[in-house]
Specification:
Strand order of the largest sheet: 4-12-11-10-7-5-6
Shape: globular
Number of strands: 16
Low-confidence stretches: none
Strand content: 15-25%
Structural class: alpha/beta
Radius of gyration: 22 Å
Largest sheet: 7 strands, mixed
CATH architecture of the largest domain: 3-Layer(aba) Sandwich
Mean pLDDT: 94
Number of domains: 2
Amino acid sequence: MASEPEPTRADPTRVWLPYAQMKTTPAPIVVERSEGTRFTLRDGRVLVDGISNWWTACHGHSHPWILECVEAQLRCLPHVMLGGLIAEPTARLAERLAALLPGSLGRVFFSESGSVSVEVGLKIALQYWMHRGHPERRRFVSFYGAYHGDTFATMSVCDPEEGMHTLFRGAFPEQILATLPDTPERVRAFDALLAARRHEIAAVVLEPLAQCAGGMRFHAPDTLREVADACTRHGIPLFLDEIATGFGRTGTLFACEQAEVVPDLIAVSKALTGGTLPLAATVASEEIYAAFLDDDPERALMHGPTFSGNALCCAAANASLDLFEREPRLDQVAAIETQLREELAPCRNLPGVVDVRVLGALGVVQLESIPSPSALRERFVELGAWIRPFGDVVYLAPPLITPPDDLRFLTGAIHRVLGKTG
């Protein structure tokens, strides 16, 4: 009796990939399933995930509690529009985020991606000043090395030289680019900048402690504190982008905690749902929120994603927060940080390596240059590691549940590949 034919397998080359030159980029690797720290590929190979699925899978892949909560929500209410209706998981998540975030950050606007959450925050800052009678305050201060997203407004607050958005220069408003105040001289220069231009500044935008997609550059809590203090002195709102740094990645639940800084606005995404579903939030302080309360409907925040506060996504996020409460994630981050420092340190002696740095569950090996990040990525795949170099860095941002043996495998893969490359 003839066996049944295998089902037709879809052609992955139909998908237009992000950040990829489709003429030369190899076909994407098809993943059939994921669990814990591993991807299982269509061809049966297994890859250890060294970057948490673009920094999202903080609890590892396919955590049973998150899956169970999403499945239960799917059965009763997948989504309801926030135009006058709301799902219980959405209200509960907003309440929990308000309780976790510092200060009076407690008014939560949901969107579906990190870029959009920053875009919403920029719009909030602009409208805040309009409502206060200062429509001229419509420019933003951001920093060299910054990356805040790929939408048009967020591109304007990225470092224009960092590589992703140079093609679009001139297509969006020119903002104010500053150097991080990490020396006494730079502290004075930053303060002078805000003093001179406060009349036109709507907000200062910063990724706290780690500028991630802009090159994995780190700065000290004292630097963040200097930025916050200058904003306070000059009456300028501080907007922190914790999309990549939030939910334990830098060693505390939110990076701003390490400097005891309370921003006026904060954006979170990526690990918010434990790497399962797309969700982001922009959270405002009570002072910012109060400027929008009026009898005039035109003073409302004019933004409304169709899937804002999606019930399935919020159920996943609530389950993820459950895991932070029940399981020792921050202790695991501390252990990962110690192991990364020990095991990446020998890379300093490899040819072409200019720096090795570690912050929480982020480990970075910076090289003089990486002529072909995609070729280097293929070398890691051959070893069974999913590590995705970019710019001039090879980095690890593993799931926070990564056991020591898996982390040792990942750091060893970096040493082996870079050793041969040198």
